[in-house]
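for the writeup, i need someone to sanity check this before i put it in the appendix. the sequnce is what the collaborator sent (i think, or maybe the updated version? ugh). structure was predicted straight from it, no edits. if anything looks off just tell me and ill rerun, i have time this weekend
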Amino acid sequence: MKINQLTVEEKLRLLCGKDAWQTCDFNGKLPFVKVTDASMGVRTAKDDGSGDKPSVSYPSAQMLANTWNLQTVRAYAECVADDCLDYGADILLGPGVNIKRNPLCGRNFEYYSEDPYLAGTIAREYIAAMQQEGAGACLKHFCCNNLEYNRKLQSSEVDERTLREIYYKPFEIACEAKPVSLMCSYNKINGVQGSEYKKGFTVLREEYGFDGAVISDWDAVYDRAKAAKAGLDLEMPFSQSNYDKLLEDYKAGKITEAEIDACAHRVLDMVARCKELQKGKTRKRIREDRINVSREAAEEGIVLLKNEGVLPLKKGQSLSACGIYGAPYSANSDYSRYLSGGGSSRVVRLTKEFDIPEALRKQGFTVLFNGGFDDNGINNWVGMNPREAIGNAAESDVNIVFAGTGGEIEHEGNDRKHMRLSDVQERAILDTAAVNPNTVVVLFAGAPIDMSAWINEVAAVVWAGFPGERGDEAVANVLTGKVNPSGKLTETFPLCYEDSPVANGYLDGAVTRYEEGLDVGYRYYDTYNVPVLFPFGHGLSYSTFEYKNLVLKTADDKLEVNFEIENVSAIDGKEVSQIYVRAVSSYVYRPYKELKSFAKTLVKAGKKEKVTAKLNLRAFEYWSVGHDRWEVEDGIYEIVVAASVADEKLKIKIKIKDGKITVL
């Protein structure tokens, strides 16, 4: 249908949605789209309104990012697209690429990374795969929604260079995949409401090539006419008062029909694109296969943080296992609140049982299991006797403690109060570790944990995150060595919150000042040599890798980075290698080094694999505030190949002169 076939009132109504989940169809006059949450699968309400329909619950976005595996990202996105087709959803409200600026943010589990290049690259692959499979994406939340505190009123105050290099950057990269839609944020950006952020919307459309529709976050519109004039196309959900005021403002001449047409045209285009995406599409995977992909993604995303030789478990060992809060057993689907974050992203799992002790028993281990305490020390489900748990730990070869947070602590609309586990959990770790030095802590959480109270008392720490369907099998497979861990952190774990660059920044009920500027996450810790618990990019393996033979090839403004990874152990493994760029001599401030490429490579035991990465001049640019553009300085740069930001393996210098790269 053409714009000129709609009345002005119909066009105005089109901009305001039909209800909470659909665009207007005017009783069949127009095609419409249905949108759905979430970041960890498809969340749709039951027809009777009694809750959500069960669906495949995938590992959280944080876990997906920890895979550093773009093939896994694509498979995950294809499965989510199939779920959208199952539930009649045209657009999934994701992915979220907000930067993990503050480790206490309640929605960090929904986001990919503290690094904009990594977040944008994963989102680009996710969007491309999901839309190719028939479901539209809604890239979110634009922008600077980095805390949940007072999110609808507070203003994120950020300088222009930091916006461009950190907070816009993942959207810039993700827009290369042509998402059909993009969601604004609740917060203000430098005093301008996210739904009225014309300056940012103009950058998206005129510089980044975004040609989809801008959608509001739910109830994020305060003045519909101002938002439309700024370039926000679709308000969700429908608000009668906002529609009435929009109609009144149109009649008063506060918004023109041409401005209305621009928004309406983009909404109709979005609907048409979604229908085109679905043409001829069938499910690529049956549901059971999607659940297997969920398990495989969890296995790839689990991070072995510490290991003093206790892992992998050895056949014939006896195990004691106890669960605190994030207990390793349940026959209740609602138990997913302990295994996933809360809010709009939470999905009711299809696989109701989550039983790590049983998964370990199936692999031949004897397990003495005690049920879990909640944060108040009250027994959950099976019931845990602390004295018995300590006795079991004392007589077993290996003691495993399952702990974490869950959706009651990490959820939309709320930030964590601190980074530590509850006293009950810390006490259980310390008490059982005191009688068994071979203690392994498995953590179910979506954001960094302060482990200072107990990290030196345990032999191993496994980051299980929020693992999704059959996450119990995934954890058991990593513990036993059936799966060699290969996940790496996509955010820094500071020693404590007070060490983070945002801890002492200005924050009140109305304003958050981004005083750290470019020094977000590892950029801060690396530049200022601040010790951390676990650095960005960190993750251990049961294999041992060596890096060697770094060779660079240049072709004017192109750079090819070649090196080898050798597996010097007897176990096949995957290694995530990271390529950073450091500006050795610069006229402007630059963080010490910045991630510009990465690869995940399977290396067989005793074998070598060649890794190749290609960089262009964009890897060396910065945003010039003086010239209001991207620029590449002439000068010396260092190419750093690393296993983590703190574990540099190989490095070599290059020179850039008049846009030409030469190796020194």
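Confidence is low (pLDDT under 50) at residues 377-383. DSSP finds 16 helices and 30 strands in the chain.
thx in advance!!
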